[in-house]
Structures are given as C-alpha cells and as structure tokens.
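Ligand: pyridoxal-5'-phosphate. Inputs:
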Amino acid sequence: MKIIQRGRDMMVNTLAVLGGKPAFRQPLHVGRPNVGNQNDFVDRARRAMDTRRLTNDGPFVKGLEARICKMLQAKHCIAVANATLGLQLVAGALGLAGEVIVPSFSFIATAHALLWDGITPVFADIDPRTHCLDPKSVQDKITDRTSGICGVHVWGNPCAVEELQIIADAYGLKLYFDAAHAFCCAGPGKMLGNYGEAEVFSFHATKFFNTFEGGAITTNDDDLAQHLRMMRNFGFPGGGAPPRCLGINAKMNEISAAMGLTNLDFLKEFMNINYVNHKLYCQLLEDIPGIMMIDYRENYAHNYQYVVMEFVNEFLDADDLQAILQAENILARRYFSPPCHETPPYSITYHLPITDMVARRTLALPTGTAVHEDDIIKICDIIRYVVENAEKIDAQLPRLID
Ligand SMILES: *Cc1c(COP(=O)(O)O)cnc(C)c1O
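Predicted complex:
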C-alpha cells in the first residue's frame, strides 16, 4: 500500500519522542468540542437576554427536551445541569440505598454519583468485546444489600440491556443506565434512552453533543419523570406551591439549552464526519498486529464519537504508545486507566480480570470535526511504524515513560 510505503520513508528515526520534529504543529484532540452555527447560537442567546428568560424551565430548555423526546422516541426528557447530577437524581428518585452494582471500567462519575449520596458502588467486570457490564459478573455481585444496577453504554456500545433487565427483574432490583457516551445510539430494538427505569446522557463539552455543560434524563415512566422534575428544582412541584420532596438545583440554564438547540441542527454532520473518520482509522489499522479496533454494529444508529483501540505489543505498552503519539502532538487518551476500583476513595482490591486487561490496553485516538483524512493517514502511518519498529524504539525510548 502506497501510504505505508510513504510512512516508512518518512518516519525512520524521526519520531519526536526520540528527538525528531513533531508530525503535527497543532495538537489533535480526542473530543474537541463540536460547535454548530455560531450565529444561530448568538441569536438565541440574545433572545434569552432580551426576554430576561435566563433559566427555570425556560422556552429553550422546554424546546430542547421536546426535540430530544422526538429524536429518541422517549416519553419524557428532563434536561439537567450535568450528567453527574442526573445520575444522583435517578438514584434518589428510584430510592436506591445500600449497594448498587456498576462497572469499574467507566468514568469515575458513575461511582461518585452513588457514594456522594451514601450508596456503595459495587464494581462488576465487563465483556471484553463491548467493554460494557458482563451480566454474569453482575449476578455474582448481588447481595441482600443490593438495590440497583447501573449499566454504562461505554463508547456508545449498548449494554446487554435485555440480559440485565432479566437479572434486575429476577432479584427485584432497579436497573438504570449511564448513557453519557450514547446520545443518538441504538440498542437492540429501540434508541438508547428507552431502557431500564431511566437513562442519563451527558452533554458535556467533550461529548458527541454538547450544551457547554449539561445532560438529560430520559424515562418512559410518568411518575418517575414528575418526581425527577421536582427533584431537579429543590423539590418544587411548580406553580408556586411549596416543596414536596427532597431536591437539589440540577436545572439546565437557557444559554446551555440555546447551545443544545443550535448543535442539534448539526448532529447529522457531526455524525457523518465521525463515521468517515472511524471507518478510515479501522481500514488503516486493522491489519497491524496487536491492534484491535473497537467496532460498532453497522445498520444500527451510532454516534461514532470514539475511535478506540486495544494495543498489545511485546516491547511497548499503551502508555508508551500514548507518550510517543503525544510527542507528535497526537493527544490520544487512555480510558479508563486506572479503572475506578483502583482509585481513591474506592481503592479496593477486586478481582476484575477483564477490566484490568482492557484498562491496560485501551487508547482512544483523535477524531471529530477538527480531524481530517490527511491527519488520520499520518497518524496511522506513525502507529504502523511504531509497531513495526517496536523493539528498536523500546531500546531508544527515554526511560522517563516508565
Ligand atoms: C462524561 C461522563 C459522565 C459525567 O458527565 P458530566 O455531564 O460531565 O457530569 C458520567 N459518566 C460517563 C461514562 C461519562 O463519560
């Protein structure tokens, strides 16, 4: 292949980590924020200020919730200030207590949202293929203190939603999902957002769809939705009535919702760019020994936000490869390493072999609207060169990396 040949000629002995010039002048990021039409956003922001509707369930928040319901075919959408608060509201509204089973291979907020409210997250292992909760491991972790299961749709890959529901029903547990990665991704029969008691999306700046900071809870349960709406606003039911339950301030403001409405108009574009980038990466890296790309099911809706690979090599590990790429201004990211159970305040010695293995190997590569075809070809050239010359590079690498 021509590309590889060019890579060989270009790259020999010029890795930036070994003193060469970085391949990119500007850093390439994982999850550089997607921004739609700036004028549309500014117009909306001006309208919010003109009308003095800045927050408290204003027209932009209502409009955003309605559009998300329609897109996901979900009955209720409750916009929130961020997904972490959303997860806390769901745990509170479902009456969770004692222990809740979560994956350790997730962003720390999945566990923190529970412990913050005095609930113990109990970590289960994952499926090596999807990186999501392994139902068998979940079953092993159930005790008489377990009140719920929180699955995480890692990389937008749907959890084993049906198997987990069967387990939840059999043991009388509440099942809900951290869908922070999974906006606009489909499950086995419906869009994610329709499984379990509720699902929580993150609209943080680095996610596929952003509202600066923000998130949303979706549910098809009328009573739960009403409860969540009250909890989001200090327990107030609305209409000037006094509070009816414990609540917090988890409201999304109108500027965030204005950003959301603006970005929704460009989702198809973001998705197409992600898809093309993902496909090209897979094509260029697939045949390299020791590189396994996480692929997504064709013909199922997906946001293709994450280009993720597992890296196994006799001489170099994923940390080495990350450092090599970083020197080239390719800011690949390790996920989720170390996994939650190994970090404070959890720091528990658990036997989670798949989690440990996947966390050691996983690297996410730059993609999104700011990364172009030429960049990807260059990145893949470098990775191929590194793998082909791993032994030599390992001998030369400054040992700082270990
Ligand atoms: C980003 C993320 C969160 C937290 O979302 P915020 O909106 O930043 O609170 C939770 N869980 C997972 C898996 C995430 O990736």
